[in-house]
Structures are given as structure tokens and as C-alpha cells.
Amino acid sequence: MTKLITPETGIVADRRKFLRSTGAATLSATAVALIVGCESMAQGTMATPSSDVATLNVALGLEHEAIMAYQLGAESKLLQPAVLQTAVLFQDHHKQHRDALVATIRRLGGTPVAEKSKDEYARALNAGSLKSQADVLHLAQRLEKGAANAYLGVIPSFGDRGLAQVAGRLAADETMHYTALTSAMAEMLPQKALTFGA
Known about the structure:
By secondary structure, the protein is mostly helical. The chain has helices at about 10-20, 30-35, 40-45, 50-75, 80-105, 120-125, 135-150, 160-185.
């Protein structure tokens, strides 16, 4: 069972598996174009739908998990009102990512992976160990850093600068979340440059 998520366990490990399982984290140009709603760009690219669907479903599973992590945090009654408001905003960002992934998977002819039950996520995230606002924020912070790293991992696979920019924008959302959570906990930001994507 996963403890409060650490870089060696839990969600971050799943994100690393996501990067390894996608062959250096490559999505076809078609898949990325569809994620951002650019169907004209998608039509001019060559797709590998089955591998893209599998990759996108892994990403979708991770978005489901992030949405539920924020839900569990919100329902814990451990968050102060201003922090709760931010958590709900970040959850909404993850819902938007989820919706874009679901639409893309369907356009590629695939079936989006279903979300698990709240109880399954609670067990996987060890929600019973969350005893304070700091516990909730640390969990979310680790999930967001893992998400940023996962999205950054796909950037080198694109020859098209526009597609690399899309992956960068997704990573930027996750990095913004990580930074805000770090600030909310009054923790120091990373002291070294090039913290993400390593």
C-alpha cells in the first residue's frame, strides 16, 4: 500500500511508468493536435491510433486520479477556505485536461479508461493518513510535480514546434499548481534551476 506519496512510490512512479511505457513518451502529432482541438493540424499528420490511445488512456487514468485526490482533500474538511477554493480551481483544471483527453481518445476510435471508485482512489492515495492541511497539500504537491514531469517528458519527441508548445502548456499548468501549493505551505521553492523534467 502506498504511503503519503513519495518520489519512489505511488503516483510519481506511475507517471514514470507512463513515460517508459510510451517509448520515450511519444504521442503522434495527430493525438496532440486533437488534444488541443486543432483538427486541421491532425488531418495533415500520420497517426498511430492504437498506441496513442493506450498512451492517452494512461494519461487519462492519472487525470482521474488527480481529480479524485483533490476531491478527497476537499471532503477531508482539513482545508482552510482560501486553500479549498484553490484546490477546487486546480481540480477544475484537471477536469479540463480529462475532458480533452476523453474527446481525443474517442476521435482516435478508442474507448476512454473509466475512473475507479472513490474508495479505490482513497486506498491508493492512503487518504486515511491525511490528518492536516499540510498532509493534503504535500500529497497534491507531489502529484502536480509528477504531472509536470510527465508532460515535459513528451516535448523532445516532437519535431513540430507547435506540438511541443502544447505539451509545454500542459506542463505549465502542472508547474503552476506545484508552485502555488509550495507557496501555500510556506515552503522554499527549489533552490536549483532545472527542477522539472529531469
